[in-house]
UniProtKB/TrEMBL annotation:
Binding site residues for Zn(2+): 350, 414
Amino-acid positions noted as binding substrate in the UniProt annotation, renumbered to this chain: 152, 181, 210, 246, 266-268, 307-310, 346, 373
Catalytic reaction list: 5-amino-1-(5-phospho-beta-D-ribosyl)imidazole + S-adenosyl-L-methionine = 4-amino-2-methyl-5-(phosphooxymethyl)pyrimidine + CO + 5'-deoxyadenosine + formate + L-methionine + 3 H(+)
Cross-referenced HAMAP family: ThiC
This protein's name: Phosphomethylpyrimidine synthase
Known function: Catalyzes the synthesis of the hydroxymethylpyrimidine phosphate (HMP-P) moiety of thiamine from aminoimidazole ribotide (AIR) in a radical S-adenosyl-L-methionine (SAM)-dependent reaction.
Cofactors required: [4Fe-4S] cluster
EC number from the UniProt entry: 4.1.99.17
Annotated ranges, domain ThiC-associated: 19-78
Region (Disordered): 1-25
GO CC terms in record: cytosol
Pathway as given in its UniProt record: Cofactor biosynthesis; thiamine diphosphate biosynthesis
Family, as annotated: Belongs to the ThiC family.
Length: 550
């Protein structure tokens, strides 16, 4: 229920997610630190705790004043001293220190703090947590952990207001976005980002070259290292947790895209390619990379090394332009890590299924297993308006192969700016892809949730099934479309098969029959099945019966 959150009437969505209550559990070894979970209290007396990204917005409270911002919780946490000029989770992990952020993440993921520290120390995981974003609830991106999803929002010159962007952030986090990227390009970029950051319980990423381009009125040839650097510092100071830097788009790679079907589709990539060609000089992002490292490590801002030459079509997948850039990203990864800066690597784009795994293997080899963060990829180009689905197919596959974070794609991809509903559909779709990969990778906690949903389904505990699901509101409303009455919430059937042909009910009957008749289950199934068969034939062997007979 949207509520008015401030005197200016800024509305953000608040209130619990249907069927669950928010709790804050203690982090072992840190009596003053608590991490969030959403508890589903089941009708059979059990409960199930879900990983939660939604922030205080899903607490039991009326309204949140977005002008005040969230509590600056992490400011009170002990922060180790910098090491050789770097104040990052990476250098602390290497020094054997388990920071409060690492302990928090371990509790949140149900894993050992030492595993968190070790994966960060090896550069196989990153914790995007700028010191200047103390409102964020720490999370980790890495192949040993649950697969994460990122939601992109951002106004463009033509649409959206600041308040709408804050609402989209809250909304994306509510449905499970682990991180958010603010890709605003219109006016009020600084202000929009300030509002988002001060209210964001999740890490926030940006692409600083977009704002730098605004500062030169949209003419990429007028960009300079100094303008870019000052933009990066401005954003570090505001609290941005990770930044996309397209430093792998080198001058000599640009001609490699000439024969492509879709050329350069990355916004940042095309800006840098235009600059390189106009000046006939190497990219300033590449030539000043060390200076960037020296800035980012003071704040603990994580690099997200951009894929400016990612394929934008099935035809261009895995081509030389793409992989040449990836090799350069590998070189930059080593430099960043030597300065103590955390790094992840952005990946494609559009890739057919049989070419997906190669992307992950190459990234691992070239980039020392730095977390891979991919945009889908779309497994086919033929379905505009359904690209959340075309891309979720690729996303599930690439995540199973080891990708650590998936950048969502909404139904509006290639067509327009996503609205609130598109954001939700994108987030839920990507939660499905990420969770399917967690199951395939045997993440310790993943299957517990499936089992809980399946048991609720088999027991006809409808409300439990809704509450445990990714989108209780939609599941419930679909069910209620045909069976809205309250007794239907415990009924042993739904309107899909009707009471007589519900397979779940028949199976349950078979079990009861076996128990009552002292039969083992296979015998009971046979006996039960022949009884059903007789009943089926007696009803005229018709699966679809008139309502009166049900
Ligand atoms: C993720 C992986 N590859 C690209 N992305 C996201 O795309 C990136 O994190 C950012 O949100 C957006 C950047 O787009 P351009 O500037 O590369 O088009
Ligand atoms: Fe695309």
């Amino acid at each position: 229920m949207p509520t008015s959150g401030s005197s200016t009437g800024t509305a953000v969505t608040t209130g619990p997610i249907w069927g669950s209550t928010k709790r804050y559990e203690p982090v072992p070894g840190h009596p003053d630190i608590r991490f969030p979970v959403r508890r589903v209290n089941l009708s059979n007396g059990e409960h199930f705790d879900l990983y939660d990204t939604s922030g205080v917005y899903t607490d039991e409270r009326e309204a949140i004043d977005v002008e005040t911002g969230l509590a600056k919780t992490r400011d009170a946490w002990a922060r180790p001293e910098p090491i050789d000029g770097a104040a990052t989770q990476l250098v602390w992990a290497r020094a054997g220190i388990i920071t409060p952020e690492m302990a928090y993440i371990a509790a949140r993921e149900g894993l050992a703090p030492e595993l968190v520290r070790d994966e960060v120390a090896r550069g196989r995981a990153v914790i995007p947590a700028n010191h200047k974003h103390p409102e964020s609830e720490p999370m980790i991106i890495g192949r040993a952990f649950a697969v994460k999803i990122n939601a992109n929002i951002g106004n463009s010159a033509v649409t959206s207001s600041v308040a709408e962007e804050v609402e989209k952030m809250v909304w994306a986090a509510r449905w499970g976005a682990d991180t958010l990227m603010d890709l605003s390009t219109g006016k009020d970029i600084h202000l929009t980002r300030e509002w988002i950051l001060r209210n964001a319980p999740i890490p926030v990423g940006t692409v600083p070259i977009y704002q730098a381009l605004e500062k030169v009125n949209g003419d990429p040839t007028l960009l300079t290292w100094e303008i870019y650097r000052d933009t990066v510092i401005e954003q570090c100071e505001q609290g941005v947790d990770y930044m996309t830097v397209h430093a792998g788009v080198l001058l000599r790679y640009v001609p490699l895209t000439a024969k492509r079907v879709t050329g350069i589709v990355s916004r940042g990539g095309s800006i840098m390619a235009a600059w390189c060609l106009a000046h006939h000089e190497e990219s300033f992002l590449y030539t000043h990379f060390v200076e960037l490292c020296e800035i980012l490590r003071r704040y603990d801002v994580t690099f997200s090394l951009g894929d400016g030459l990612r394929p934008g079509s099935i035809a261009d997948a895995n081509d030389e332009a793409q992989f040449a850039e990836l090799r350069t990203l590998g070189e930059l990864t080593k430099i960043a890590k030597s300065y103590g800066v955390q790094v992840m690597i952005e990946g494609p784009g559009h890739v057919p299924m049989h070419k997906i795994v190669e992307n992950v293997r190459l990234e691992e080899d070239l980039c020392e297993e730095a977390p891979f963060y991919t945009l889908g990829p779309l497994a086919t180009d033929i379905a505009p308006a359904y690209d959340h689905i075309t891309s979720a197919i690729g996303a599930a596959m690439i995540a199973q192969a080891g990708t650590a974070m998936l950048c969502y794609v909404t139904p509006k991809e290639h067509l327009g700016l996503p609205n609130r509903d598109d954001v939700k559909v994108g987030v839920i779709t990507y939660k499905i892809a990420a969770h399917a990969a967690d199951l395939a990778k045997a993440h310790p906690r993943a299957q517990e949730r499936d089992d809980a949903v399946s048991r609720a389904r088999f027991d006809f505990r409808w409300n439990d099934q809704f509450a445990l699901s990714l989108d209780p509101d939609t599941a419930r409303s679909f069910h209620d479309e045909t069976l809205p009455a309250e007794p239907a919430k415990t009924a042993h059937f739904c309107s899909m098969c009707g009471p007589k042909f519900c397979s779940m009910r028949i199976s349950a009957d078979v079990r009861t029959y076996a128990l009552e008749n002292g039969l083992t289950t296979p015998e009971a199934i046979e006996a039960g099945m022949s009884a059903k068969s007789a009943q089926f034939v007696a009803l005229g062997s018709s699966v679809y019966l008139p309502a009166a007979t049900l």
